[in-house]
């Protein structure tokens, strides 16, 4: 693994590049891992790190990174926007190609990272495939769920430490800022209203059956799979103790390995 910063100026991003071990797989693509947002990111770190290592050993170079305004990347969340985060994908693809020498790309997005991956896949022409893992198709439902989790967490903390209730107001959610402008942008997301066709091979991975035809219909080469595993991003236990979704990871590895054969 090689830690690195990429991008320019005040929008530089922190990432970790996993070079392909041994000879790069014939016709391989570089894989970009797009993590979730907010508390779901922490609980997903272990699985994405493990996936990157496995793919690298399989002959695929991989880049993981933190979104602008999150983790170790530059900026504050107050300066983040959907447009900025989609631009992060462009910077990540450019960097991954430069580091690996590979010209094609596979995007692996988890939760909100999958939402952004779907938007990027519709706009780019250098994508070999996209993995959409438990995609957030409706931003309003996602934000409402964050607030519900925040209220439940705050209620437990306030019962143990009554003074903690004083920190429940404002735009902080589960210990992280959610500026009103960004919340408004996220709430407006509805993938079922997007009409741009996506013709690249797409794996839609979900943890339970769902009525998602409304937003998956524009993907012309789609493989939908349901894997009965506990969602790692709902554990709220930290990156080193979150459940490991072994079957989902294997499904992603196998599917990427079958591309361009």
Structural description of this entry:
The chain has 261 residues and is of the alpha/beta class. The chain contains 7 helices and 10 strands. An 8-stranded mixed β-sheet has the order 1-2-4-3-5-6-9-10, with helices on both faces. Strand 1 (2-6) and strand 2 (13-18) form a beta hairpin.
Considering the chains and any ligands shown, give keywords for the structure.
261 residues; Rossmann fold; two-stranded antiparallel ribbon; eight-stranded mixed beta sheet; alpha/beta; 2 domains
Number of helices: 7
Q: What average pLDDT do the residues reach?
A: 85
CATH homology superfamily name of the largest domain: Alpha/Beta hydrolase fold, catalytic domain
Q: Poorly predicted ranges (pLDDT <50, ≥5 residues)?
A: none
CATH fold description of the largest domain: Rossmann fold
What series of H and E elements makes up the topology? EEEHEHEHEHEEHEHEH
Estimate percent helicity. 25-40%
Rg from alpha-carbon coordinates: 18 Å
Under the CATH scheme, the architecture of the largest domain is: 3-Layer(aba) Sandwich
Under CATH at level 1, the class of the largest domain stands as Alpha Beta
Count of structural domains? 2
Q: Structural class, from helix and strand content?
A: alpha/beta
Report the portion of residues in β strands: 15-25%
- What is the first-to-last residue Cα distance? 27 Å
Shape: globular
Major beta sheet, strand line-up: 1-2-4-3-5-6-9-10
């Amino acid at each position: 693994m090689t830690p690195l910063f990429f991008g320019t100026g005040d929008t530089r991003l922190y990432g970790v590049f996993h070079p392909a071990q041994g000879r790069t797989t014939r016709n391989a693509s570089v894989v970009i891992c797009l993590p979730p947002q907010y508390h779901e990111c922490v609980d997903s770190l272990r699985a994405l790190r493990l996936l990157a290592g496995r793919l690298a050993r399989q002959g695929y170079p991989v880049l993981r990174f933190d979104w602008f305004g999150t983790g170790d990347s530059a900026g504050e969340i107050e300066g983040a926007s959907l447009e900025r985060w989609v631009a992060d994908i462009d910077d990540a693809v450019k960097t991954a190609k430069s580091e690996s020498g590979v010209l094609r790309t596979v995007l692996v997005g988890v939760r909100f990272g999958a939402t952004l991956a779907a938007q990027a896949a519709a706009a780019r022409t250098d994508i070999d495939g996209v993995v959409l893992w438990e995609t957030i198709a409706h931003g309003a439902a996602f934000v409402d769920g964050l607030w519900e989790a925040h209220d439940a967490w705050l209620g437990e903390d306030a019962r143990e430490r009554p003074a903690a209730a004083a920190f429940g107001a404002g735009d902080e959610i589960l210990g992280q800022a959610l500026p009103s402008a960004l919340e408004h942008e996220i709430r407006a997301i509805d993938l079922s209203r997007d009409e741009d066709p996506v013709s690249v091979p797409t794996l839609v991975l979900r943890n339970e059956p769902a009525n998602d035809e409304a937003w998956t219909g524009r993907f012309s080469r789609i493989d939908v799979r349901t894997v009965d595993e506990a969602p790692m991003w709902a554990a709220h236990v930290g990156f080193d103790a979150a459940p490991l979704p072994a079957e989902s990871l294997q499904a992603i590895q196998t599917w990427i390995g079958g591309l361009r054969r």
